[in-house]
Amino acid sequence: MCYKVRVKILFVSSEIVPFASSGGLGDVCAALPKALSRKGINIIKIMPLYGCIDREKYFIEPTGIELNISFSNSTYLVKIYSQTYENITTYFIQSDVFFNRENLYVDEYGDYDDNFERFLLFQKAIVGLIDFLNLSIDIVHCNDWQSSLIPIFLKYGTQGKLRVCNEKTLLTIHNLAHQGVFDSKKFYLMQLPLSCFSDKILEFYGNINCFKGGIIEADAVNTVSPSYAKEILLEKYGNSLDGVLNNRSDNIYGILNGVDYERWSPNSDSYIDCNFSINDLSGKLKCKKELQSLLNLEHKENVPLISMVSRLTSQKGLDLLFESFDELMKKDIQIIFLGTGEQWYEDQIRDLEHRWPEKVVAKIEFSSSLAHKFFAGSDIFLMPSTFEPCGQSQIFSMRYGTIPIAYNTGGLSDTIIDYPRKGSTGFLFETFNTFSFLDKINYSLDVYNQKINWTKLIKRAMKCNFSVDQMALEYINLYKKIISN
Ligand code: GLC
């Protein structure tokens, strides 16, 4: 087999749909390479081969390449697998010790204890593979902290010897809340020069901070919306890295995520009960009726059905919702939840369902088919995230004519135009408190009762187009800029 391939972009992520994903990261890391490849970019993807990935279903085969990856005084065997679909090859890093597990990052007790070692192995193996295959790469595109050490290993080598670095690097921040912070005692496993453990690179309040190292060492950094790119420079959103980010502010870009409308369009969606389009919204009413029946809610055509489809974590603004809930329940509405997450939030939501069984239904599960039904059948979509790098659900909901109510932050500000501004597509509340949140909900319920205005709003929301093509074009421009610098 000939391994000498000419590659332009090596796209690295800890999750890629359909192989394995825990949320928006996995979706974008599938959609972007696909769109780039359609635009003629030569791209290879690479991710870990988790135990939960169905090798047979996706025709994932061993390449025969085996690498010994050193962690100072121990060595681990890594096997490289691959598959090719629609002209894009994905490589998989297999390790019995670190990746042959059901979940990506956590077990029932929380984060795996060895997440540092797991993603250290992943990244060292990637640099090892580049060298083994003698890949000629223009840019290694890294995503989030799980691949943010690559810019450092490309320069300093993985085995304690400097490496000639011919590659440029881009680091995309999908979520700054997770930074990969670990005990400095583990630094020796990296086999980097001691100078890398300085506050100028990896050191962070006495620990190792993987994201910080990548933000400093990558040739360019971007986030997934223009507003979040500005917000992370502020103390409020910088998660203690605002200083580091400000030092790089000339090289921080914001590129809005696109979504794959081939999977998310009400006129072709096979999960929903009745297809519909801007020109004929009658199917949306049928979807609402079916959804109410499915959830054992009384069928009330003119009562607003409000939904939330979300990971149940503090980021998603659930505390604000809980604080507002008694007030909300005084109104003639129905509220439905779909998602899983932290135990405490799951319990709280179940409790709301017990307290108001006629008005509240909670589906504490992860289900694609239910998600599509929720987006299609609801009238209003709640997304009061405290911060949101981009967010996808508000984009899906708009496509299905379900009007979002969100906090004016990050990607939510960049995708939703507040009613009644020109071209409005949803509602944005300005201050993160119950007063401002409830005020916006009340306002939206007033507009809901003005049928002509509401229908116009639905149609404008459905017309929004946050396409992967636009996203791909902006990444291509950024790649060109990085290469020419
Ligand atoms: C993370 C962010 C989300 C973003 C997604 C994809 O999950 O929280 O806002 O849409 O990454 O970039």
Give a short synopsis of this structure.
The protein is an alpha/beta fold. Helices cover 34% and strands 20% of the residues.
Explain what you see:
- By secondary structure, the chain is an alpha/beta fold.
- It has a nine-stranded mixed sheet, with helices on both faces.
- It folds into two domains: 8-258 and 469-484, Glycogen Phosphorylase B (Rossmann fold); 282-465, 3-Layer(aba) Sandwich (Rossmann fold).
- It has helices spanning 24-38, 115-133, 150-156, 210-217, 226-231, 242-247, 282-294, 318-328, 343-355, 368-377, 393-399, 410-415, 434-448, 451-463, 468-484, and strands at residues 9-12, 43-48, 61-71, 74-85, 88-94, 106-107, 110-111, 139-143, 168-173, 181-182, 203-204, 207-209, 220-223, 252-254, 305-309, 334-338, 360-363, 380-383, 403-407, 427-429.
- The chain contains 15 helices and 20 strands.
- The protein is globular, with a radius of gyration of 23 Å.
- Helix content is 34%, strand content 20%.
- Alpha-D-glucopyranose binds at residues 23-25, 28, 174-175, 224, 257, 388-392, 411.
